[in-house]
TrEMBL record:
Residues 319-384 form the HTH luxR-type domain. The keyword Transcription applies. PROSITE patterns: HTH_LUXR_2. SMART domains: HTH_LUXR. Keywords: DNA-binding, Transcription, Transcription regulation. This is Helix-turn-helix transcriptional regulator. Coiled coil: none annotated. It comes from Ruegeria alba.
């Protein structure tokens, strides 16, 4: 899995940040320089008390935190409005598109006269762009890159270069969300893994299991999808599952194919047990290159996250309903789906016909842009922190 060029090196470093979010500041500086920019930022729009404001979760280590926070506080309303414009110009598809700041004003003179633009220019920032890294939750995982006046002649080429990396950033943020949630409560990733209701496993490049949490071990024993063999290697029981997993192992170019909806890249493997009625594991795999939080030496290998859709997950239905415009009946059905129940079981519990429930499930999948129930539950748990075990 040796990186072949600067792009591949950055891709592998991006996935390392899924395991160790402390890598983002230095990494964002490298990404910006690769694209000919000054710096880059990952942020989200928070709405406490219906008063939206921007929160920069990660930004280039060349930026001073007091200056970033001061700028966002000073120009919050303008920035919120600008982000709405960037979002409107993003494609409705899974693709991630970097939108230049030329969309923010009718003319260059009008753009340069704006108060937030004047402040940025005091620090050498002439151009900026924005992108949605998460099209399930439009307020999460926004991306911005800033450029100097030297980008005047070739800005489209610089944006295109940066855009090649954005699907990988989106996937790393998605996979890393459960780890970051428990890391806030515990000292290290390894100490926190058993606090997750999703399986996590760290592999070296020979697929030896270096670390795995309690849920991973349970899935190994009960699902019949994969197991740790006597030599300590991860093996898949189905040749088809193994071949699909191999497609994601070792080649960075196999990752980031679904842009702002990386959950679609996950491997779906059906339980071997007849008692699970077609329930599946949703398995995300990402490469690691210099993972430092695992042991004494940096690890070159893989990170595997597995969501068992036969388990019961706690969903934040008001949030999900608002995101996807679900009806009250669809919310009730979705909650039962998250309990691992089949359409027939849902129909019996709700006193509805199977055709009605089938239609409601189809509507849920369409509204949430999911191909099947497995994708929907994987997406919903990631949105609602349903991957966390109650402390």
């Amino acid at each position: 899995m040796a990186p072949t060029d600067q792009h591949d090196q950055l891709v592998l470093s991006i996935y390392d940040a899924a395991l160790d979010p402390g890598k983002w500041p230095e990494l964002l500086t490298r990404i910006a320089r690769y694209a000919g920019g000054i710096g880059a930022m990952i942020f989200e729009v928070e709405t406490p008390g219906d008063q939206p404001h921007l929160l920069a979760s990660h930004f280039s280590d060349t930026y001073q935190i007091d200056l970033v926070e001061g700028y966002l506080n000073q120009h919050n309303d303008l920035e919120i409005a600008d982000q709405a414009v960037f979002a409107r110009h993003s494609r409705a598809s899974d693709d991630i598109q970097l939108i230049p700041d030329s969309v923010l004003a009718a003319s260059e003179a009008e753009l340069l006269a704006r108060p937030n633009q004047k402040t940025m220019m005091e620090y050498g920032i002439r151009y900026r762009c924005g992108a949605l890294l998460n099209k399930d939750q439009l307020f999460h995982d926004r991306f911005s890159m800033q450029f100097g006046s030297d980008a005047s002649e070739d800005l489209p080429q610089r944006l295109a270069r940066a855009s090649r990396l954005l699907p990988h950033i989106a996937k790393a943020l998605s996979i890393g969300r459960p780890l970051q949630a428990v890391q806030k409560r515990h000292d290290t990733v390894l100490n926190a893994l058993d606090k997750l209701d999703v399986g996590f496993c760290v592999l070296d490049k020979r697929m030896n299991v270096i670390a795995g949490n309690e849920e991973f071990r349970r899935q190994s024993e009960e699902s019949g999808v994969f197991r740790r063999d006597p030599q300590g290697k991860l093996s898949f029981r189905s040749d088809d599952d193994l071949n699909r997993a191999r497609a994601l192992l070792g080649n960075p170019k196999q990752h980031g194919r679904f842009g702002a909806r990386p959950r679609k890249e996950a491997l779906e493997a059906v339980h071997q047990s007849d008692s699970h009625n077609g329930d599946a594991l949703c398995i995300d795999i990402s490469p690691l290159h210099q993972a430092d939080d695992i042991g004494n030496e940096a690890l070159d290998g893989y990170l595997l996250m597995s969501t068992d859709t036969s388990r019961t997950y706690r969903l934040e239905m008001p949030t999900i309903a608002a995101l996807f415009d679900l009806s009250e009946a669809e919310c009730a059905v979705f909650e039962l789906m998250a309990e691992g129940k089949t359409n027939k079981q849902i129909a019996e519990e709700r006193g509805r016909s199977l055709d009605t429930v089938n239609s409601q499930v189809k509507s849920i999948l369409s509204k949430s842009n999911c191909g099947n129930r497995t994708q929907a539950i994987r997406m919903a748990t990631n949105i609602s922190s349903g991957f966390l075990v109650r402390d």
